[in-house]
Specification:
The structure is a single chain. The chain has 13 helices and 22 strands. With about 525 residues, the protein is α+β, with helices and mostly antiparallel strands. It folds into 4 domains: about 35 residues; about 150 residues, no CATH class; about 270 residues, Rossmann fold (3-Layer(aba) Sandwich); about 25 residues. The chain has an 8-stranded mixed sheet. The protein has a 4-stranded mixed sheet with strand order 2-1-3-4, with helices on one face. The chain has a 3-stranded antiparallel sheet with strand order 5-6-22, covered by helices on one side. β9, α8 and β10 form a beta-alpha-beta unit.
Amino acid sequence: MDFKEAKRNKKIDIWVSIILLISLLLCVNFLISNIKLNLDITKDSRYSLSPETISRLSKIITPVDIVITIPENNELPKIVQKLILDFNLLFTSFENAKSKYPIRIHRINIDTAIPSSELIQRYQITERNQIIIMTPTGAKKVIYKYRDVDGTNVLDSSNIFRSKDSLARESIWESGFYKNWKETNNGILEPSEFRGEQIILNSILDVAARKEKRNTAYFTRGHGEGSPSDINPHNGFSEMRSLIEDKNIKVSSLDLSTTSTIPDDAKLIIITGPKGTFQDKEISLLRDFINLEKGRLLVALDPIEEISMIDRPAFGLRGVFKEWGIRCHDMLIHDPDQNNFDIFTGDYSLKTYAKDQSHKITDKLKEGRFSILSTRMRPVELASNDNINFITQEVLYSSKSSWALSSWTNRKSPPIKNDILDMEGPVPVVATSEYKNNHNEYSSRGKLVVVGSSKIFTNRRLKENSGNRILCKNIFNWMLDETNLLDIKPQKLNLYSLNMNENEFTKLLYSLGIIPLCIAILGAFVSWLRKEL
């Protein structure tokens, strides 16, 4: 027997076996990559859509495209990188979900994308750092936009310098993607729950589900109210208009004195800072709207100085408020403590929330210790009402050192408290009321929110103060039932903290590389030893 020939044949057999094994692995990998099957083996099914979500996706009537233009790189703040990672895992679940119409995920780098790309041309995508949900019918909604800034100008004395990471954390906090932020060992707040599934599903339903007939918010006019088209920073409400339109709700104006009925498409009526009284006919329309037509009414009233208004308190709306268990006084809130005023703007700072009971409008504000800025305000409190058909609640107050002045136009400055006529602080400034059925459950009927100052919602305060913006968003969410739309529990997140400097990181890399290096050296030694034998 020729041993050299046998040795040569043995080597050929080994190489053929290796080639066949590699070919088998490649074929298996190819087949697996073409099988769209996800297996979530986490204990709490963290990366699977809830049955509620899968059921709701059956309501979409058009394909959905989710476009991400945020580049994935290490230069982004860590909190933004975390958001992208959590979203990527969730987007895969939505993309593989069984729905009548497909949900497609597109990741685009605007800086390197070809301008003639069919997707870019179809949706006119021009901005980076966004997550957008769109449909071929033209509907779209931006669910997140990262503003890539280096902080505020350190030389601008009117602003406090903010790091890029701090600004990113605030924007993500405000977006509501995470909740229950907890302080870690290094003093940084980290989220413990992820609400991405609920927010993405709500957004998909907003743009791709069948539209409701009632899909318009009307701002009243004819009484000197603020306008939703006014961009004036101090008196305009165009920022409030933008917040409403972000929910795919149209915005228009309505003169109640020139119409006999509320438009059929009215979902929400907003009254912002009127200067004249509402007549009986107009009040009757508003009363029918919230009592009989499942309407939502937001009223923001400023203190008045005209004596002629006294015969019709709260601009003639007191009767409607009383029916819903709310009383809006023609008084002025006064606070002698200058620590409760913003040192830069002179605005009054509201920081007190309802202690005994929770409310979805202010839960996040209370958790984050946000303040609400405004100027002059009037009290809005609960009236003594035995009507069991309404659930009323005060949600925001002035400070304990404040009080409300009666007949304030005739009072001296500084005023002296009248224990009989004045209202002791803290004074309620925002109150809500909603209709309930006989089984003590919330129904889809009317809702009412009364605010003791329209200045809380002006353009400057919504732009510059996060507390005002979150309050405004939460009021609309509550009035439009968006907080109760879905019963999807947030996903629990595990909090880990790993702190090390550059040298410690280098040592960690070397220590992790020791084991595979030793195995490689041992393998080479055994191979050499076998050749020698």
